[in-house]
Structure formats: structure tokens, C-alpha cells
Amino acid sequence: MDAFVALLDGFGEALTPINLLFALLGVLLGTAVGVLPGIGPAMTVALLLPITYVLEPTAAFIMFAGIYYGGMYGGSTTSILLNTPGESSSIMTALEGNKMAKAGRGAAALGTAAIGSFVAGTIATLLLALVAPTVVQLAISIGPADYFALALLAFLAVATVLGSSPLRGLASLCVGLFLGLVGTDLLTGQQRFTFGLPQLADGIDVVIVAVALFAVGEALHVASRLRHGPVEVMSSKGSFLTRQDFRRSWKPWLRGTALGFPFGALPAGGAEIPTFLSYATERRLTKHPEEFGRGAIEGVAGPEAANNAAAAGVLVPLLTLGLPTSATAAILLAAFQGYGIQPGPTLLTTESTLVWTLIASLFIGNVMLLVLNLPLVGIWVKLLKIPRPYLYAGILLFASLGSYAVNAQPLDLVILLVLGLLGFAMRRFGWPVAPAVIGLILGPIAETNLRRALAISDGDLSTLVDSWFSRVVLLVALLAVVLPPLLKLTRRRKEALV
Asked: From start to end of 204-330, where are the E strands?
């Protein structure tokens, strides 16, 4: 009941004319940037993050709610019409959605993605409002060793799930952990890896790292592989959802939501696993198996619902524990820190109005997306036809201006270039970028809690496994590392026997 009252107060704050304007602006900007080829929600939020620094916190996060969901919607449009998923969680949508578009059913694919996103986003946001206070009660009772175990679980889960191999994911994570060490050690006051530059005494700004690795690295990677000629965009025309399409879609929407939110809410969650599980589930349950691989509407409805439900789910560990479990959540954490706000168990107490307004604005942004974007799909299709050289040159210019605006220091542009080249190299050799950003943000938090736990126990390492909570979390972290290679080995042996 307290959560319901707080949510109503959040709606009272979010429904003011000026805040509705910021929500609308966020939705439009998020969709417009997210619909561009190769740009996923994480890159969308990273690019638009510097814009919000001129706003006061409540308005900024209302705008971010719109950008977040708008970027998710834009990514599905690109996946369906261009077969270019902006992130790994959109691969399943592209697999069936693009086939539907090629068969002249682009409007139906976009329709089931949009309505599925709305249904999943609405249910998952409601669950976020109900679950968050309960998780906070649990988080208050855990100590530094437990927080270190949670951070370790998030590190290993993200590093092993994302990317083509766990080893590359862990290597990317180490890059982020090293970048997180740059600056002044808060406990000793010693400077680390600053190369004598006073501008690095406070560390490398997370916004610059995120923009460099996502935007600059991606732009350089695409430019290196750019082929001349027009971009082939499938038509968004055709019949909208028929009655039969609705009958085939509503159960996948609900099943996708049921899979997506719990995985997103776990500290080791994310959107990749539930989208793959949703696709596999729909393929197993469908009454039209012959359509899978050729444009089955269930293959769009389920994964897209799972993706959006997980997007709301990742806000649970972010807001209540301060743990980002996806690249987009990591950038949102950077946005909080940019305003001097640290998400965690006390956030719902110290910044109650801000949190509940943010959750309410997620509902509002979701409704705006449904009302606005189906009629405006023709405009988004035109954006897809922007020539790639102009598009990525614009991204580089926008990234440079936004990064310079953060601190107004020329050194930031040098760091942007160096880390952008690093991001390009990571993509070139198949290293996932998200673990690096999460390592940068979570690394200092994990280090602080580890040193605090050891200081309390006079250096006794057994304190890290003293509580049942830390033992369970560390066991899950170990399984996250051991299980994937074991499953691959088992699969290879079965294939060899066959």
C-alpha cells in the first residue's frame, strides 16, 4: 500500500505540463536516435546523456525514462526493417521480424513489437514498483562482504553471457576495472595511473568512456566496413495486425513478460537470455512450426516482450543495490552519479520523490510511445535511409561536442579519441563492450566494499564467506563461469557421438 501511495505521488509530479514535455522530448529523441542503424539503447542513452546535464535531476530522469524506452522501441524498428539489431537482445526480433517485412508484413511485425513492448513495459514497470521496496528491505541487512559478492556475480555474469566467448568477456571486464582504478584512492589519498596529469586526479568520467566505447568505437567500426550503395530498407506498409495476429500474439506477449522481468531483476540478469528462451518457447508451443525461420509473428511478439520486460527489470538491482546488469543500466548509473546521487538501499528514502517520479514517467513514456510511434513509423523509415557516411560523421561530431561539454577540458577529447580507438579494436577482435563499462562503474564500488570488509575483520579473508548470503552469491558466480564451457563440451560430445 505504501508503494501504491508513493507511486501516485510520483504520477502527481510527473504529470505536470513541463515534465510531460520532457517525457515527450525524451521519447522522440530516444526513438529518433535508437532507430538509426547499428545504434542500440545503450548507445542512444550514452549519446544523449550530456544533454540532460543542463536540467535539474527530476526533469533529467523523466527525460531519461523516455529516452530509455524510446531507444528500445527504435531498436526493434531497425531490427525488423533493416535486419540490423543494435544489441544482442534484439537478434531474435530481427530473425523473424525481417522475414515478415520481406514477405510484405512489415506493418504487422512493427505492430506486434510495439504493442508487445507496451504490454510488457507496463506490467514490468508495475512489478518494479511492487518489488523494489521489498528488495530494499533485504539490501539494508547485507554487509560489505555481501556487496562485494554481488559485484563479483555481476562482473562474471555479464562477462560470460555477453560476447562470443567468456574469455573475451573477462578480458573486456579487466579493461574496465583498470580504467576504474585511474584517479585518487579514497582510502589512502594516493593517485593511481594518472601519469602526473591533475585532470585525471578525479578519474575518467564515465560519460566519456561510455560515449567513446559505444558511439565512437561503433562509428569507426562501421566506417571500416562501409560499402557504398543505398541501404536496403524493407517496407513498413501492409496490413496491420489482424484478429488472427492478435490471437497468436497475446500469449507470447505475456509469456515473454513472465520470462523477461525475473531475469532482468536478478543481479546476474540481463535481456539476452530471456529473449532467446522466449524464442525457443514460442517455437516449441506454436501451432504453426512451418512459419518459424520464415516470419512467424510469435517469434517477434515473445522476444520483444521479453526484451522490454527485462529492460524494466534491470532497474530493480540498479535502484535498490546500485548494481548495473546491462550496458544501458551502467550508463543510467553514471547519470545518477553525475548528479551526486548513489543508487542503493537508501535511495528510496533519500531520493523518494525522484525515484517514484522516474517509475511513474516510465508508465507515461510507454503510453506516449504507443500513441505516437505507430502513426510516425513513416518518419522513422526515412531516418533509416540517411547515407551511412553522413550518419556516422554526425555521430562522431555529436559525441565530441557532448563529451567536451561534460567538463569543458580539451584532455577529454584526447581521452575520447584514445578510448574510441580502443572500442574500435575491441569490436574488431570480438570483445564485448558492455563488460568494460560495467567494470569501470562497479570496480570502485567492489574495491571499496572489499577493503571495508577486510578492514572490519583485520584482514581475515574468511569474512568474505561468513554469511549465507555471500556463500550463495559466490556459488552462483562460480556456476556462471563453470557452466557455459561444460555445456559446450557436453554438446560437442553429443554431436561427436551422433
From this structure: none
